[in-house]
Amino acid sequence: MRLSLLLGLALSATALIAAAISLVWTPYDVTALAIADKLKPPSAAHWLGTDHFGRDIGSMLMAGAQTSIAVALVAVGIGMGLGVPLGLLAAARRGSLADEVIMRGNDLVFAFPSLVIAILITAVFGPSALNAILAIGIFNIPVFARVTRGSALSLWTLDFIRAAEVAGKGRARISAEHILPNIANHLIVQGTIQFSLGILAEAGLSYVGLGAQPPTPSWGRMLAEAQTMVTLAPHVAIFPGLAIVLTVLGLNLMGDGLRDHLDPRLRRAA
User: Fold this and answer.
1) What is the domain count for the chain?
2) What pLDDT is stored for residue 1 in this prediction?
3) So what's the pLDDT on residue 190?
4) Residue 112 lies in a domain
5) Strand partners, 50
6) Do 27 and 56 form a contact (C-beta atoms < 8 A)?
7) What DSSP letter does each residue of 70-110 carry, written as one string?
């Protein structure tokens, strides 16, 4: 197993474990204010220091991992759940009206970045974590549709697929029984990549006030609140930034490692 995959798994597991533990316990209450302890540097009492409200930054990061991971995970689920069937349909009906409609619809969604989609959604429904999920999820649909269609098209010309057609299997059944299992490795790798991008997107949306709202902790909003205090208390910005960087790095390394591990050609080359 490659070092990149092991390192990626370790970094990703750290974020997941921190989020899971914060569901039942954090060193300090993330909603309790202690103004007398505001902007304290890292110490034995507060390992990562405190923010401008006196809240423990370590506890905030643990609770913020819940938000980032939950938003990214659900958004990827939406993208995969809708994009994969659309991609399979487009590949099975290549050159048909359905294929054309699906691919042009993908182009239309790609014309609007997730931030723009979030602005449109929040203009109607208001800023929230749910609306961030919708914005990121909608943007993920064409990503998975394109990856699925591209991977599936290369299989439709192979002999075992033609044998299944000769045996009387319909295109929908072939897509489910033969195409999807053979492109699952591509979808898994793409899923880890989109997961990391989802965490970045959630942090960006929260940074501009379109993501999770107070008192729900969020890594992006922690950075936004710390931007005016960087020179006074740099630890307030450093630790949320590190949490985002290390988590995204871990997921990207895991995606690269899974790609190398699941692709037999890359395994043989190694």
Assistant:
1) 1
2) 55
3) 94
4) yes
5) 56
6) yes
7) HHHHHHHHHHHHHHHHHHHHHHHTTTSHHHHHHHHHHHHHH
Residue 19, H or E segment? helix 3-22
How far is residue 101's CA from residue 99's CA, in Å, rounded to a whole number? 6
Cβ–Cβ < 8 Å for 38, 54:
yes
Residue 58 maps to a domain: yes
- Convert the pLDDT of each residue in 147-173 to its tens digit: 999 999 999 989 999 999 999 999 999
Domain-embedded: residue 24: no
The reply to whether 30 falls in a domain is no
pLDDT digits (tens, 9 = 90+) for 252-266: 999 888 887 776 555
Contact 256, 4 (CB under 8 A): yes
How far is residue 144's CA from residue 80's CA, in Å, rounded to a whole number?
6
Query: Any residues with CB less than 8 A from the CB of 267 and at least 6 apart, and which?
Result: 260, 261
Looking at residue 112, its pLDDT comes to 82
Rounded to whole angstroms, how far apart are CA atoms 120 and 116? 6
**pTM for the complete prediction?**
0.92
Q: Is residue 122's pLDDT more than 90?
A: no
Amino acid, res. 208: V
Q: What is the pLDDT, as a whole number, of residue 123?
A: 76
Q: Which residues contact 86 (CB under 8 A, 6 or more apart)?
A: 102, 141, 145, 148
